[in-house]
């Protein structure tokens, strides 16, 4: 598909920024999950519940998932 009139450099810059933002966001969510799993103050069940809480918060913020993929 041709992108006449649109600078390829601009498209690549926007794609790189989006990619970087996604990488940072995924890293932040993963850090929260790892923190819950490594918390020595929690029992095994407490760790599971802490991870479930992180997942629930993610789902609330991200909105409903598209299950057609």
Layout of SSEs?
Elements: H1 8-38, H2 44-62
Which descriptors apply to this entry?
72% helix; 69 residues; elongated; single chain; mainly alpha
Describe the structure.
This protein has two helices and no strands. α1 runs antiparallel to α2 (44-62). With 69 residues, it is mostly helical. It has a domain at 15-61.
Poorly predicted runs: none
- SSE string, helix = H, strand = E? HH
* Integer average pLDDT: 90
First-residue to last-residue Cα separation: 23 Å
> How many alpha or pi helices?
2
Brief description of this entry?
The chain is built from 2 helices and no strands. It has helices at residues 8-38, 44-62.
